[in-house]
Amino acid sequence: MKNSLADRSSGGIICAALITIFFFSGPLHSQEDLVSLSVKKIAPPSSLLATDHKYDNGNSISLSWVPSIDDALMNNPIVAYKLYRSSNDTEPNLIAELPPGSSYFLDNGVSTDNSYSYSVSASTNAYEVLSNRTESITPQSEWINYNKKYLFLMVMIISGAIMYFIVSAKRGKELFVRKIAGLEAIDEAVGRATEMGRPIMYIPGIQDMDDVQTIASLTILGRITRTIAEYDSKIFMPVARSLVMTAARETIKASYQAASRPDSYSDDMVNYITDEQFGYVAHVNGLMVREKPATVFLLGAFFAESLILAETGNSIGAIQIAGTARPAQLPFFIAACDFTLIGEELFAASAYLSGEPMQLGSLKGQDVGKAIAMFFVLLGVLAATVSAAWDIELFNNLLDNLNELFS
Amino acid sequence: MRRNIPLAVTFVVGMLLIVSVFLPPIETIGEDFGVFFSIIAVFAFFLGGGNLIKVHFGKIMKKSNDWEFSLVTVVGFFAMLIIGLFKIGAPGDISTSVTAEGSYFQEMFVYLINPLQSTMYALLAFFVASASYRAFRAKNREATILLVAAFIILLGRTPLGMMLTGWIPESFSIFQVPNLAVWIMNSPNLAGQRAIMIGISLGVVAMSLRLILGIERTYLGGDDKG
Predict the structure, then answer these.
(1) Collapsing DSSP states into helix, strand and coil, what is residue B10?
(2) Is residue B225 part of a domain?
(3) Is the same domain home to B1 and B72?
């Protein structure tokens, strides 16, 4: 504005114009102009480094930089760090905005087909200052993720132990497996239903076949329906997933065939209700109250519906055997059911019921895993306690190593 | 053959998924299999829906006990299906989302299904009360410990807990009921939960190995040896 006015030649006109502007347009400079004139520009971030992220599929690049020195000031003017990426030397694009104080970013939007260069800017509300651009870098894909070496080692040890006991059992080695009360009660529960002439209800949770708890539940179903078929009792099974319905029908059918009672089997034993959690609960509760099953099995993945189902079963006087691997639901089952399979017992149930040495061997192998877990828990408690109380370097290092091992 | 092919598929897929955790080039294979599963599940829904209609139509036709409930089920099923398929009431053309604001499908979900679900969920409050009553009876030593722990936590979550024990000096603040409740939740309770979690993880490993190696085959519809 000042320059354009200076070009004018007539002094009177200039004076008149200046007076007019002064009185009618407010100050000579706008507020923003004054700020930009008085504020010194901030320092840019420096030492921007782009490196290939190790042990990945070539889909990420690590970026690190030294934040602007103005970032540490009391009245920090920096509002964000903006990261720009240029792919194959094309125009840079903004890929991320990070809060003040940031000095690291993992760019997951890259591929091995292109090369990339980066710049980072420190941004205030009025302007931004860019760092130098990095050299072009092409991410590399690695075949093995060495970051997971400890996990691999643990998988090998535990799987190896399980395999060892399976092979030992196959060779005829006697294995002791403790009694599981809930599974011991299955025969009694089925027998009770038979004597009372009332049906048995089996609920396999509300998850689909991609949940290991549902698979565990169906393996138990196979064993239980074998007993039900032998006792010539009745079972009905409302399910919340279509795939579970088809898988359960196959399982029950095979059990009835194995018990030499194929004629007693009917597809109507398993019915699809709905995928909706509480719609399913409403139906099952209604069914329980109307049909009054003598025995209710609740085995699988349960959520908020666990207590509603278990309490309804309790109210009709059914003997209830429940099991889930969801710790949050276990207290509800323990409070409302006669027997509860806690966590791992759900997965062990089928092997336990089968009584086959090879299956029991796998249970024995788990114990090695538990022993290892106990050892490291005790070691961790010792290291953390001594480290906190006496700050001994050996235990500090031990604690660090354990943290690294299990992080 | 009927059983061997699924067993072979289970073995190959299981091993592949385990190995994919350690090999970056195939690390996303689990997500790909998840997509395959979803596709199969969509087709299986026709079986489920068909079964639902078959069962309830049968009840209505035969006028079996409580056939009126079946009528409600069938009417509800077809109403939602038709409204959803034809996007009745949805603003715009057929490409509009079925859950768009104002569509009848969305309206029925918000004003019918949601309140019904909330009603069922609300029942939980009463069931918690009745289950707690039974669980907290001091029948034996374990039940008594449970009762005491529950009492402390219940009291610790209310202002009464602080009122009753707020006078305890700061050096013994652990004995203030709210702090005691936090300690019970964070120490003994969490330790127990973690122990269960470790057991569950090992159980999953053993179960997965039995499935992958074909030792456990009940889920495929029986076991030759069983």
Answers:
(1) helix
(2) no
(3) yes
Q: Do the beta carbons of residue A60 and residue A105 sit within 8 Å?
A: no
Q: Do B215 and A143 touch (CB under 8 A)?
A: no
Do B23 and B80 have their domain in common? Answer: yes
Q: Domain for residue B222, yes or no?
A: no
A223 lies in the same domain as A284: yes
Which residue intervals of chain B are DSSP H helices?
4-20, 29-62, 67-85, 104-108, 114-135, 141-156, 159-165, 177-184, 190-212
pLDDT digits 0-9 by tens, A361-378: 888 888 899 999 999 999
What's the rounded Cα separation, in Å, for the pair A125 and A178? 69
Domain assignment of residue A138, yes or no: no
Is B204 close to A327, i.e. CB distance below 8 A?
A: no
Instruction: Find, in chain B, the residue whose alpha carbon is nearest to that of A223.
Output: B218
B115 touches chain A (CB under 8 A): no
Given a contact cutoff of 8 angstroms between Cβ atoms, the answer to whether A215 and B203 are in contact is: no
Query: What residues of chain B, 125 to 154, have a C-beta less than 8 Å from chain A?
Result: 127-128, 130-132, 134-135
3-class SS of residue A217 = helix
Which position has the token pair 């009660």?
A185
- Determine whether the interchain pair A343/B65 forms a contact, defined as Cβ–Cβ distance below 8 Å: no
Residue B75 and residue B14 share a domain: yes
- Give the chain A residue whose CA is nearest to the CA of B46: A242
Specify the number of domains making up chain A.
Answer: 4
Name which of A126, A343, A288, A308 is nearest A206 in CA terms: A308
User: What secondary structure letter does DSSP report for A172?
Assistant: T
CA-based nearest residue to A186, from A175, A197, A200: A200
pLDDT of residue B18: 93
| B187 interfaces chain A, CB cutoff of 8 Å | no
Nearest alpha-carbon partner for A365 in A156, A219, A166 = A166
pTM of structure? 0.83
Q: Is B108 exposed, middle or buried (0-12, 13-18, 19+ CB in 10 A)?
A: middle
Distance CA B167, CA B161 (A): 11
A335 Ramachandran zone, left/alpha/beta (phi>0; psi -120 to 50): alpha
What was the pLDDT predicted at B29?
93
Min Cα–Cα distance to chain A from B165, Å:
28
Among B146, B210, B212, most A C-beta atoms within 10 A, so best to mutate, is B210
ipTM of the complex: 0.89
Reading chain A (407 residues) residue by residue, the pLDDT tens digits are 444 444 444 445 544 444 444 444 444 444 444 444 445 688 999 999 999 999 999 999 999 999 999 888 777 889 999 999 999 989 999 999 999 999 999 999 999 999 999 999 999 998 999 999 999 999 999 999 998 999 999 999 999 999 999 999 888 888 888 899 999 999 999 999 999 999 999 999 999 999 999 999 999 999 999 999 999 999 999 999 999 999 999 999 999 999 999 999 999 999 999 999 999 999 999 999 999 999 999 999 999 999 999 999 999 999 999 999 999 999 999 999 999 999 899 999 989 998 888 888 888 888 899 999 999 999 999 999 999 999 999 999 999 999 988 87
Domain-terminating residue out of B123, B149, B184: B123
Domain range spanning residue A70?
A: 46-130
